Amino acid sequence: MVSAIRVAPTAATRAINLLRTVQYTHPPTCPCHSNPSHHHHHQNESSSLIHHARRTLTTPIDPSRQKEYAFEMASSNIRFGPGCTKEVGMDMKNLGAKKVMVVTDANVAKLDAMKQTIEGLEKEGIAYIVYDKTRVEPKESSVKDAISFSKAHDPDAFLAVGGGSVIDTTKLMNLYTCNPDASFLDFVNAPLGKGLPITSSLRPLIAIPTTAGTGSETTGTAIFDMESKRAKTGIAHRSLRPTLGICDPLNTRTMPSAVHASSGLDVLCHALESWTAIPYYERMPRPTNPISRPAYQGANPISDIFSLQALRSTAKYLPRAVKDPDDHEAQEQMLLAATLAGVGFGNAGVHLCHAMSYPISGQNPARYTQPGYVVPQGQPLIPHGVSVAVTAPSVFRFTGPSNPDRHLAAAEALGVDISQVKKEDAGHVLADRLARFISDLGGQPKGLKDLGFDKTHVEELVQGTLPQKRVLVLAPNLSGDEDVQREKDQLRGLFEDALEF
Amino acid sequence: MVSAIRVAPTAATRAINLLRTVQYTHPPTCPCHSNPSHHHHHQNESSSLIHHARRTLTTPIDPSRQKEYAFEMASSNIRFGPGCTKEVGMDMKNLGAKKVMVVTDANVAKLDAMKQTIEGLEKEGIAYIVYDKTRVEPKESSVKDAISFSKAHDPDAFLAVGGGSVIDTTKLMNLYTCNPDASFLDFVNAPLGKGLPITSSLRPLIAIPTTAGTGSETTGTAIFDMESKRAKTGIAHRSLRPTLGICDPLNTRTMPSAVHASSGLDVLCHALESWTAIPYYERMPRPTNPISRPAYQGANPISDIFSLQALRSTAKYLPRAVKDPDDHEAQEQMLLAATLAGVGFGNAGVHLCHAMSYPISGQNPARYTQPGYVVPQGQPLIPHGVSVAVTAPSVFRFTGPSNPDRHLAAAEALGVDISQVKKEDAGHVLADRLARFISDLGGQPKGLKDLGFDKTHVEELVQGTLPQKRVLVLAPNLSGDEDVQREKDQLRGLFEDALEF
């Protein structure tokens, strides 16, 4: 009834395979594919998002110049429901965890989310250690601290309770606890680090977000500040993804209105940037091993579904969530939107708003603190979402010509009647809508000037943006390594345009 | 810099938690929630899909009657791209596999998909054993055979190359190889089996679909025929999900037109049934442990996104894929649609079309074989997709009143101008559109009569449907266990209505 055969490739098979390889491993040469800034008619319809490689036999070329031909979609499991935090003890038991590292920060440690978590663990008799020293906007030093603590206790599972900073820090604790001999820079994104792929499997990590913003519970990304290089960077790999994200809308009720606003602006930009990123089949180089295919791979037909839905929800619910602290429906929808946007950008990537945000929040020359934020030790703070959204009108005016239809679809999702809009105005129309959307939230800077920047700061902002290669390669319309001078000029123009909107 | 604290719940915390538990663990009592057939104004908008539990304190009630309050979304990683099959050798190496069980069937064993797979493994020097005896529409006996083979060889990873039958069989080989002492019925869905949750972690499984239909590469479901009970059943649990689905559009080019049609009809019904299933917050009972939350949990805001997109793509591309064997764009889009629908129904479930399909294909009184199918040993065959779609007009006419807006949205996705349609006609309008859509594909039965059924077969079809509890509980408008006689009458009516469309 059963048989075991071992197929040895015959000469004929090899010939077929060779033909197949040649047919599908060469970059297309039709002009609309050769430049990331000219792919509009390939993005208009989902039908065009699956790339058709040109089927002619051509001379083999430099593999490092080959464009991508596949995309990969990965996400943490996501559980969503009011009150489901308390299930986490059973989850840890189901995973076989005997000693759990609970990671949080000093604020969240006092909140109900943390109480539910601890009660869940105690009810199942699971031993745990709490690390509550993660910091908002993690720095290399705070991350290394957390890693030392984790290595010393060597837990068999991790549980992050907090916002993106907590969840990102926990991912790094897991990574380096499972790779105790690795040097810190081994996995950090190139060019600041070595960008090695993660080959070991990590321990279970359950993430319980208490903000509706980063979507970190679904992604394989962890961001931190390398003070030594004056730059934000991070580690990004599918293996870093949490095992499970527990999205409990009761946990975001504790967010002040200002945090609703800035974390919602982060969601807005996650959705917009992943939706407008270059398509995956324009990214270079094609990986020679699938483990090297980046999580940030460009827009693809699956990320598109998530990004556009997140954008629509944000348009509808963010203003309500900011204005009315008792609008629990809007808050729940924003938590869901943050998670959907997380799956979207976690598989497509972000681009200019995020690349430009890192020097904005890092340099902060006027020691600006966002109204409504309570900052420990009087440290100044431009919240991540604010630093991202402040350049959005400028960015999407710039990227508009790369794909007018996508920019119009985004404007429509934000409530613009686009029936009479010309394609050449797509970027402007979206930019104007974004400027009004951000202003209408209230309390938001209307450009970099309101954050204390002026023309004299632009050059340093450009210098702080250039190392963000991982996301800049996904920016449509931006010149790449072939013409770095032009890229600098473009970034300079973007920052200048973002001084006021 | 670091601290370890151990939080013991105080009396105050306990009081808060008790309040929280009481507030969120009782089923809502507003009349529009109490009956699955009357939730329309809760499904019209995504805003209403997050269920708001009623916040009053009431007397505790029987937990088995509590409705669900959370949903969980899980999917295999999905890689998509023409030619990406050949990456599987590197994937297996990255997973650390040393001895791979390659599972396929006698037809697929001859195709290029299998050649690419074997070449990929050999290039990386990975040892493998091939099992090529899986059968179309697996039976208990064929499944047990495959499991014996797998147990004897004890591989450290599995690789399925084929359609849904192959992938489903491979999931079962993995499950019972990792649980060698389990009795076969332990994990089989109740009431035919014991329906135990899967607590052990399984070995890596990579699935490479060669049809665009089942979406099995993304789901935790495996379906087979229990000859002894004259019923189709299966095993469904998130843990069964493949590690990775490799969706290579080159692999579906070998499908004959008749297979494009029937597998595409399966996609159509996956999308329609998951989109119209009862919402997750109407399902009972609420699980007492998250590991018992079924994969088939009812419609939810994330499954909805997948199901509706899959429906739109199927409407657009299935007719083209069936009519023109060289329309590779349509074929690629159908492979993507099958995968998207897989994520949708894999997290929401299917209902009546699938429940009723099992006795249709199982009983086949006229020994019907679908034109265009080449069946081994002259066995009759009603392909799964055909048996599912043949009742679709009847089913959605019946379910229409449960949620007119969703049925109208489905009709619109299939190209109907719904601007003038009244809500009470929603089911009829969708049914009429489906009847025409199926007929226009060509070569499809226009009702059960064309498959050789008549009125005298209806009673046995009803009897064969009743054991499909797992999906029947998700059917809107259907009477449940409270009134089994009414449920039988409703099913009888559905089969009679499906004799001709």
UniProtKB/TrEMBL annotation, chains A, B:
Residues 298-363, 382-485 form the Fe-containing alcohol dehydrogenase-like C-terminal domain. GO terms for cellular component: mitochondrion. InterPro entries: ADH_Fe/GldA, ADH_Fe_C, Alcohol_dehydrogenase_Fe, HOT. Its EC number is 1.1.99.24. Residues 76-249 form the Alcohol dehydrogenase iron-type/glycerol dehydrogenase GldA domain. The keyword Mitochondrion applies. It is found in: Mitochondrion. One of its GO terms (molecular function) is metal ion binding. It comes from the Eukaryota. Pfam families: ADH_Fe_C, Fe-ADH. Keywords: Mitochondrion, Oxidoreductase, Transit peptide. It catalyses: 4-hydroxybutanoate + 2-oxoglutarate = (R)-2-hydroxyglutarate + succinate semialdehyde; (S)-3-hydroxybutanoate + 2-oxoglutarate = (R)-2-hydroxyglutarate + acetoacetate. Belongs to the iron-containing alcohol dehydrogenase family. Hydroxyacid-oxoacid transhydrogenase subfamily. This is hydroxyacid-oxoacid transhydrogenase. It comes from Xylona heveae (strain CBS 132557 / TC161). The lineage of its organism: Eukaryota, Fungi, Dikarya, Ascomycota, Pezizomycotina.
